[in-house]
Amino acid sequence: MCYLHYPSRADSPSTWRYLASVRFILQYANYWCHCTLAIHRFLTMAFPHRSSLLRSNKVISTLLALPWAFSVVVNLFPTFSLFQLRYQPSVPWGGFTIGPQKVAVFNAVFGVHIPGTVMGLCYTLSIIQAGYAVRNRQRRVGYGLNAEGLPSTQMMRTVRRRWEISRVLFLTFVWYLLCTYPVPILSLLHPEAIGTFPLLALWLRFPQYSYVGLTPLHVSGRCSDYIETLVLSYVLWPKSSE
């Protein structure tokens, strides 16, 4: 509703700021939520022996609070017109953008690009670490018992499962990029296109706001708890449950 509302002349500037701030706070909080989730997943995979600490109420509460805190701080600048940033209505149709263009890059960097970069870094490191662990475990598979005191076959299954999870998470991040970044790129290169071609903007924003529910990996896989060395809900390949 905040996005589709058309700012009319009867609306006061305070109404614009309120509706636009709600919309952008929700949007940036969504990006930062995925960022903190990626950090938590990476730490869980990198330090499985610390899983009890990472599952503590204090850590979970911090992960829930940080995205909203980051989003509110970033949106304080256009809400109160600091450093020339402000919300402005999209013409000729409803919605709001942050302008002017020369300073709007601040919100794009701290609201979209930084969380996306951190997500990519976490998932890339996770898949590299998991791939290295599989290769290293294959070399030691014939030794009966390993340093952890578990049978090599059992440990190999655990390592392979971690590799599958890392692969799915990385592909989910690629889907996130495909759904999220067309609008920021278009706004940067051709900002007038958002207001001139409403159907184009709607087609680009639909996956941006619905990529979580429409991710093919979510549809083809299932959510399951990765117990053993990892304790967190992930999206798994269907074959992992067999």
Q: How many strand segments?
A: 4
Question: Count the helices. How many?
Answer: 9
The Rg value, from CA coordinates, equals 22 Å
* The CATH H-level homologous superfamily: Rhodopsin 7-helix transmembrane proteins
Sheet with most strands? 2 strands, antiparallel
Q: What is the level-2 CATH architecture name?
A: Up-down Bundle
Helical residue percent? 55-70%
First-residue to last-residue Cα separation: 43 Å
Summed over residues and divided by their number, the pLDDT gives a mean of 73
Strand order of the largest sheet: 1-2
Give the overall silhouette.
elongated
- The stretches of 5 or more residues where confidence is low (pLDDT under 50) are 1-6, 219-242
Find the CATH topology. Answer: Rhopdopsin 7-helix transmembrane proteins
Keywords: Cell membrane, G-protein coupled receptor, Membrane, Receptor, Transducer, Transmembrane, Transmembrane helix
Pfam families: 7tm_1 (PF00001)
Main location: membrane
Membrane topology: Multi-pass membrane protein
What would you say this structure looks like, in words?
Its main location: membrane. This is G-protein coupled receptors family 1 profile domain-containing protein. It is a multi-pass membrane protein. Residues 1-189 form the G-protein coupled receptors family 1 profile domain. This protein is 68% helix and 7% strand. It is mainly α. It has one domain (13-241): Rhodopsin 7-helix transmembrane proteins (Rhopdopsin 7-helix transmembrane proteins), CATH 1.20.1070.10. Strands 1-2 form a two-stranded antiparallel ribbon. Helix 1 runs antiparallel to helix 3 (57-79), helix 4 (101-139) packs antiparallel against helix 5 and helix 5 runs antiparallel to helix 8. It is elongated. The two termini are 43 Å apart. Mean pLDDT is 73; it is low at 1-6 and 219-242.
